[in-house]
Model the fold of this input.
Amino acid sequence: MGEVTTMTSLREIFAFPFRGPQWRNRFIIGSVMLIASFLIPILPLIFVYGYAVAVMRRAIEEEALTLPRWDDWGKLAGDGLKAMIVGFVYLLPGLLVTFGGFALYFGVSLATPFALEASDEGVWVLLFFGSFIIMLVAMFLGMLLTVLGAIPLPMATGNFVAEDDLAAAFRVREWWVLLRANPLGSFIAWVVVAGLMGILYLAVMLMYSTLVLCCVIPFLTAPIGFYLLLVGAALFGRTYRESREILLGEEEVA
Done:
């Protein structure tokens, strides 16, 4: 039974996108697809997410970690769309609360100048500040719900990939048992991925502050973003497999 959290395993996962047959061409295709997503909404991302599902499937099935070929575009599209649905459902509560708070605040803000002419000024001042407070509370609750939805998302996605069944992502009892079987591995995987995403975010913010780099952000962030997607898919796939092995071991002992 392998340990996904060992330094050897992490080094292998960090390096695998740059190994294997024709890795350069396959990596370039993924990066170009992400660049295209800046011009064409959603469609290129569906194929990129499908490719990430293929990587996760290899990690779960304990195949050699190399970049798969860009073929069977129908399968890539289907898997990518399913992965996006899973993510959307798990993150939806946080998104609804956050955007609901923003919508209320901006709605009141837009209506205030017109309402002040036709009604009591004090009432609308209270409504304005009240909506502002509600927006702040909604931002906090939305962030909390988003985090709570993101924590089980990799394990739920792994269940969908392993079973090749979209409904498996929403069988909470199944992925919850796996999450409980390996909480440390899941935590470390999330810390690694979140740390890499944080570094990318800081790099993008720095590029935005520079006029020259601001113009080439898509060309710089696309390969980095594709790399992070590959690493995350492999790492969470390995974590899912490790959790399943731990659970099977516990059942054999029992």
Remarks:
- Residues 7-88+158-253 form one domain.
- The longest helix spans residues 73-116.
